[in-house]
Write a structure and sequence with these properties.
7 strands; Chemotaxis protein chec
């Protein structure tokens, strides 16, 4: 499949989106956790949705995924993907506990991660919506613990070919005692993808 080819200026625009998204998310998480959290974005790019498992460690990598639908002017799907270890650390930060030696994601951790998912989705979508001048509203997240390949297969079936590209914002969450890597994927439908591309100065896509 052909990818999306962007100019240097368009790549700079995407990087700016990532920086604004991360700034919003860092502020929201800091307020939620009551401690300073910094977020850096080492990577932001469009990928074919079938390449998503490779971006998070491979199709057989066991991951924790938060899946949200996007309503409003820019319909689509969001996935936040964390390794089990990082998901456990993030949820422990949320509930004020030390991470357990194992990586078991129980009911308490699931609830904490879903709340974090809502906070992050609002932060990321707020930045994206401001950039494209449209309203984006996330739904309540669904949490899935599965292999990355199986998770994407499930989404591909559900999306039924509505879009083959995902906007990846790789984010590293840093606070004094931990560093966590998360992957934010926005999978827009075809019209939403066109709106994003036009907003960064590209008038057509393949």
């Amino acid at each position: 499949m052909e990818g999306i080819s962007l100019t240097g200026l368009q790549k700079d625009a995407l990087k700016e989106i990532g920086n604004i998204c991360s700034g919003n998310a860092a502020t929201a998480l800091s307020q939620l956790l009551g401690k300073r959290v910094d977020i850096v974005v080492p990577k932001i790019l469009f990928v074919d949705i079938e390449e998503v498992p490779g971006a998070v460690g491979g199709a057989e990598q066991l991951v924790v995924g938060l899946i949200l639908r996007v309503l409003g002017d820019l319909p689509g799907t969001i996935i936040f993907v964390f390794s089990q270890r990082d998901a456990a650390v993030l949820s422990a930060m949320m509930v004020g506990k030390q991470p357990a030696d194992g990586v078991l994601i129980g009911d308490l951790e699931r609830s904490a991660l879903k709340e974090i998912g809502i906070i992050l989705a609002n932060a990321y979508l707020g930045a994206m919506g401001s950039f494209v001048g449209l309203s984006l509203v996330p739904t309540v997240p669904e949490l899935i613990v599965d292999m990355a390949g199986a998770m994407i297969d499930f989404l591909l079936i559900e999306l039924s070919g509505k879009c083959r590209f995902a906007l990846l914002i790789e984010s590293e969450f840093r606070e004094p005692s931990a560093s966590i890597t998360g992957h934010f994927f926005l999978i827009p439908n075809a019209d939403s993808l066109e709106a994003i591309l036009k907003a960064i100065g590209k008038n057509d896509f393949t």
